[in-house]
Every structure is written in C-alpha cells, then in structure tokens.
Amino acid sequence: MLLSTLLFAALVQGAPQFGGNQGFTMLRFGCAQTVIDRIDPLVNPGQAPSPHMHQIAGGDAFNITMPVTDIAKLAKCTTCGYSEDFSNYWTANVYFKARNGTYKRVPQVPNRDLFNDQYTGKTTGGFVVYYVSGGRNQVTAFKPGFRMLTGDPTNRKSANRKSQTCFRCYNAPNWGGDNAAPCQDRTLDTEHFPTKPCPGGIRSNIAYPTCWDGKNLDSPDHKSHVAYPVNGPHAFSGVGTGGACPSTHPVKIPQLMLEIVWDTSAFNNRADWPTDGSQPFVLSTGDNTGYGQHGDYVFGWEGDSLQRAMDDARGCMGASCGGLKTQQPAAGNKCVVPGRVHEERDGWMSELPGMEGMPM
Predict the structure, then answer these.
(1) Where in the numbering of this chain does the DUF1996 domain appear (predicted)?
(2) Distance in angstroms (rounded) separating the CA atoms of residues 191 and 204
(3) Residue 118 confidence class, pLDDT cut points 50, 70, 90
C-alpha cells in the first residue's frame, strides 16, 4: 500500500519541490484503525453522534471531546508504526451503494511491510501517513494542542484543488506497476471517484496545508490558521526549496499526507451498480462525487520527536529518521478505543448512519 522504492527515488531525485536529495526527510508509516465511530472531536466536540461516520487512526486518547493540550500525555498507546506518535488522524468512510439501495462499508487494504521490510505483519485496516521536510531548519514541527482540517465535506463540485486530494483507480493489486507520484498526473488521478471498476482498489490521498500563521493552534473553522503555499495546493509543494508560504502564514510546517486504499474487489460486479451506469461509491457524508473528501488532524507526537526527525539532514526516509522509536504492527493493532455511538458499522444497511431521510 505504500509508495514503492522506485517512486520514492523518483520523488527525491526528480522533484524540484524537494530541493533534490540533499537533506530530504520523509516519514512514511502505517497506522492501524483505532475505531470506526460517529464522533468528531474537532468539528463537533461533545456531540455523539456527530453528523457522519469516520475512520480513526492513532492514539487511544481519541474521544468525543479532546482538550487543546499535549495529547501525547493523555494517550497510553498508538496504532501507528512510530510508537512516539500519539496523534489522531481521521477521514470519512467509503460505502458501496448496491442497485437495491442498500449500503455496505468498503474496508481498507491493510498496510504491510513498512519501513523497507524492516518489520513484518500487517495492520488492521487504517492507512499510511506521510510527513515530509526539506531537511534541517526547513520546517517547524506542530506544537502540542495543534489541530487542523483540510477539505470540505459539503463540497459536491470540483474546486480545482489540484493536488489537495485525489483518487486513483488501481487496475491490479499492488498497483499493477503504477508508480506515479500521488495527485501529480491527472491522467491517473481525479478529484472525483473513479467511474469504472477498480480491480486493485481505489487509492485516496489527502494533503494538508504546509504553512502556519505561527500563533494559533486552531481557528474557528479549523483552517484559517494554516494555508497552502502561494503556488497552489500541490501535494508535497510546501517543503524543501519550493512552495513559498504567504505572508499571512509565514511558518513552514511539515507536509502531512494520508493515503488510504479502499478494497473495492468485492464490489466490482457491474450488475450490482446503478442501472444508469454511474459509479456506486459514496462517502459517509452522503457524497457520491468524492469532491467532499476531507481529513482531520490532532497533533500528538511525544516531546520533540517530530522536530528531531524533520531536522534529520541526511536524506532520511523510513525508520531511522531522527532516531524515532518504532513498533510492530501487532502491537499497534491492539491499541483500540471503544465505540461511543452504538449503531451498525459493517453490515448491510438501508441508510448511511446520520443520513437518515436525506435524498441520496
């Protein structure tokens, strides 16, 4: 599920936004599923249920409300490959809508063979997380209490967001030889859901802003305190020598990106698709376009561990960055939190959770 070694080499050596391979740092690691639940401590704190279902990864401090504090001190375990990362990451789920109008949650392809096969096993669902820096003194790591949101769950039209979010249709398992960088080639990637069956699954990427106002850990809309670089919201464009920040948000922060591969293999029979031939997948927000893809983030790295890794100027990719501590997938899989809202999550259902009575 992770980008291949070939792709990493291409990104580092061929992409000017990385500043070549001098002092380039990329953390890439899997985070197992912490819980699937209809709560959202960022946008709807204290509300259970929240408007739509989420898939959550990271530390076990995730709850209906999360105080603006050092989350790493509240968590006891994490689902992530780096054991010092107690952050929480969450996105909308994807569902399949059958021709008879019922819904079924699409599972995530497990992450496996992380850190260049330095450990084995696979995660329980979840997704891959990336943090990218141009090297020493290039970015300022997030501060305790920091949180942000990218994307708009209510959007149903193209926002011309370029590389902020995208989907890719895999024609075969393990990408079928597809090693192009995420969200860079619009012949491969789209803002909307793929319109054809994807035998190898559907990959979605969510790239967060890379510029910060340097003052606020959050903002009322969870977006205004951060910004994309002035040359556009391109994935990875805010690091290294490229992606200048606007004057209102002068502080460069790590490029955070989520990568999820939805296992659509059980839903590729066109006889089950809508009779009009349209694609059958829908986000848990009720969005059948995919334009409303979004991601939430609450920072929770322990101490200075993230800054230390981002400052690693050796051209670092993987487990050795900054001397970070790692854990086996089996350990991460054990870190779960109980569901707070008790409702159907995995069976066939007549309506999406929270979308009852809404036109679909």
Answers:
(1) 40-301
(2) 9
(3) very low
Structure-token pair, residue 334: 């054990």
Task: Kindly state the helix (H) or strand (E) to which residue 4 belongs, with its residue range.
Answer: none
pLDDT for 238: 42
Measuring CA to CA, which residue among 83, 124, 90 is closest to residue 107? 124
The pLDDT of residue 163: 60
CA angle 158, 162, 166 (to 5 degrees): 75
How distant is the alpha carbon of residue 128 from its chain centre?
A: 7
Phi, psi for residue 305 in degrees, rounded to 5? -60, -45
Reported as half-sphere exposure (CB side, CA atoms, 13 A), residue 284 has a value of 26
The token pair at 205 is 């990427």
Nearest to 98 by CA among 344, 242, 281, 341: 281
Structure tokens at 73: 């001190």
User: pLDDT per residue over 287-324, tens digit each?
Assistant: 999 999 999 999 999 999 999 888 876 667 665 677 88
Listed residue (148, 84, 57) closest to 300, CA to CA: 84
Which tokens is 270 given? 């066109």
Measured in degrees and rounded to the nearest 5, phi and psi for residue 173 equal: -55, 155
Say whether 10 sits in a helix, a strand or coil.
helix
The tokens for 40 are 């959202």
> What residue segments make up the domains of the chain, in order of their start?
5-333
Q: Answer whether 58's CB lies under 8 Å from 268's CB.
A: no
Contact by Cβ (8 Å): 178, 106: no
Angle at Cα 253 formed by Cα 75 and Cα 257, nearest 5°? 70
Amino acid letter at 70? D
Query: Percentage of the chain with pLDDT > 70?
Result: 79
* Distance, C-alpha 141 to centroid of its chain: 18
As a whole number, mean pLDDT of residues 180-205 equals 85
Between the CA atoms of 300, 303, 304 and 306, what dihedral angle is there, to the nearest 10 degrees? -30
Helix, strand, coil shares of the chain as percentages rounded to 5? 10, 25, 60
